[in-house]
Amino acid sequence: MTSTEKLTAELRGRAAALGFDSFGIAAADARPDLPDKLRQALDAGWHGDMDWMAETAQRRGSPRAMWPDARSVILLGVNYGPETDPLALLGEKSHGAISVYARNRDYHEIIKGKLKELAGLLARRSSAEVKVFVDTAPLMEKPLAEAAGLGWQGKHTVLVSREFGSWLFLGAILTSAELPVDKPHKVSCGSCTKCLDICPTAAFPAPYQLDSRRCLAYLTVEHKGPIPKEFRGPMGNRIYGCDDCLAVCPWNKFASASRELKLRGRPELERLTLAELVQLDDVGFRELFAGSPVKRIGLGRFLRNVLIAIGNSQNHALVPLVEQRLRDESALVRGAAVWALRRLAPERAAQLRLAFSAVESDEAVQAEWTEELA
Question: Any catalytic annotation for residue 244?
Answer without folding.
Answer: no
